[in-house]
Design brief:
This protein has 210 residues and is of the alpha/beta class. The protein is built from eight helices and eight strands, in the order ααβαβαβααβαβββαβ. It has a six-stranded parallel beta sheet. The protein has a two-stranded antiparallel ribbon with strand order 6-7. The longest helix has 15 residues. It is globular.
Length: 210
């Protein structure tokens, strides 16, 4: 029996008494993968993307390990739920138009201290201010810089259209707007090089991709 078949047989035995649908996580494999990520990060803290680990107990488990720090969340509602559940470093991965969520964030000191929102346009600051509903807490802000690859004067673009901030000058201009604005605190910048995610530095036989 192959190792894969042996694992499948073990999983079938473990779940035989349960009705579908169900989810199963091999904690030994989970921990081994986490350890390998830490090894490859070589000292750089790893922020866990919650949209890839949709289980609070697993988030708690991996964040208890040395080498992991904080969560990158999918929606503002999820960010607030995670913060209320005890996670104190939650970065919202995308700008949001959730006005009710912003009102809750700006009105609760614990949530405001635990959640950082993503912004790539001054209009989003206007939206947050309009949604505050009297909430006076300082909102933590992260700016996203577009890191897609632009070639031939911008006529060819490789990568996701994640942000309108394409240059350091544009990023600096928005950063100054955040810094001048009461009720906000700039705490970081983010760039996602999705067009090279998973691409090796020297792929044999594929020089263009390398």
């Amino acid at each position: 029996m192959t190792a894969r078949a042996a694992d499948r047989a073990r999983y079938d035995r473990a779940t035989a008494a349960y009705e579908a649908p169900l989810a199963l996580v091999d904690l030994a494999a989970f921990d081994a993968n986490a350890a390998d990520l830490v090894r490859r990060a070589n000292g750089k803290p790893i922020r866990v993307a919650s949209k890839s680990v949709r289980c609070r107990a697993l988030l708690e488990r991996v964040l208890a390990r040395e080498g992991f720090a904080g969560i990158m969340s999918f929606t503002l509602a999820e960010s607030l739920w995670l913060a209320r559940s005890g996670f104190d470093d939650v970065l919202l991965a995308y700008p949001s138009a959730d006005r009710a969520g912003y009102a809750e964030l700006a009105g609760d000191p614990k949530l405001a201290a635990s959640v950082t929102v993503m912004v790539d346009d001054v209009a989003q600051l206007d939206l947050i201010d309009a949604a505050r509903a009297g909430g006076r807490e300082v909102v933590r802000v992260c700016l996203e810089l577009d890191t897609s690859l632009r070639l031939f004067g911008g006529r060819v673009r490789v990568g996701a259209r994640r942000s309108p901030l394409h240059s350091p000058a544009q990023l600096a201009e928005l950063a100054r707007s955040v810094a001048r604005r009461p009720g906000f605190r700039l705490v970081g910048i983010m760039g996602y090089e999705g067009h090279v995610a998973g691409v090796g530095d020297a792929v044999a036989g594929r020089p263009v991709r390398s």
